[in-house]
Structure formats: C-alpha cells, structure tokens
Specification:
mainly alpha, single chain, 2 strands, 132 residues, elongated
Length: 132
C-alpha cells in the first residue's frame, strides 16, 4: 500500500463529528422518555386458567425466543438424556456427515448462553451436550 494512500485513509478516519451536539440531543430525548414512562399506568392481567407445564424444559422454552433450527437442536438434545456430540445432533437432524457438526454448533452456542443446554468437556477436544 502506498504511504500517501495510507496517510489519506488515516486522515479520513480521524475526522469525526463533534460528540457534544449528539449528546445534548440524546439527553433531551431521555428526559422525554422518562416522563412518558412515569405517566404510564401498569395494568395487571389475570389469566382465566392457570398454565401447568408438564416438563420444566417446556416452561423455559416459552420464555426464550428460539429460531426453528435452535428449537430442533434443543428437541434432539432433550431426547438424548445421556448427552450427544454436535456431529450426532447434526446427523439426527438429517445433515450430511461432513457438515453435521458445523451445522449444530451455532445453535448449540446460543442454547448454552441461554442455559437450556449444558456443555460437558471430555478428554481432548470431545464435547457432549445435555439438556438442563
């Protein structure tokens, strides 16, 4: 890369708008939002029938919004109580053998962050996932 081009890029990156004008408008907007929040009324809604969950997993699934892929992975993990590796989860979902583990890892990462699935590290790089 030419040095003159590099200098021009650096000069463009260092040109920024002053932050003071943006922060004063943001403070005014937050003050308006706080006054609207204070005037809002809280209404209690009473359900006519109590909802009874047969499994604790079902109750936690309804709280967290899951994509269809994440839901499918969660169902597969719940069905295997002894634990399952990502490749096994992908194969059970109908993926090709070469792509099975990569297909499942994205959904498994989100499910472990939401604490719906537990990640168990075995010897080396082997991992099992169990439903909580």
């Amino acid at each position: 890369m030419r040095i003159s081009h590099k200098r021009n890029i650096q000069r463009k990156l260092h040109k920024q708008k002053p932050l003071l004008t943006n922060t004063t408008s943001a403070v005014n907007n937050t003050l308006k939002i706080e006054t609207v929040i204070e005037t809002a009324e809280i209404v209690d809604v009473v359900a006519s029938k109590p909802i009874v969950a047969s499994k604790p997993i079902v109750a936690s699934k309804s709280v967290v919004a899951l994509t269809p892929k994440q839901q499918q992975v969660l169902d597969i993990v719940v069905n295997h109580t002894d634990g399952l590796n990502p490749k096994g989860i992908g194969l059970e979902a109908g993926q090709e053998e070469a792509k099975a583990a990569a297909w499942a890892t994205g959904a498994l990462k989100k499910l472990t962050e939401e604490r719906l699935v537990e990640r168990i590290q075995l010897a080396g790089n082997k991992v099992l996932y169990k439903a909580l």
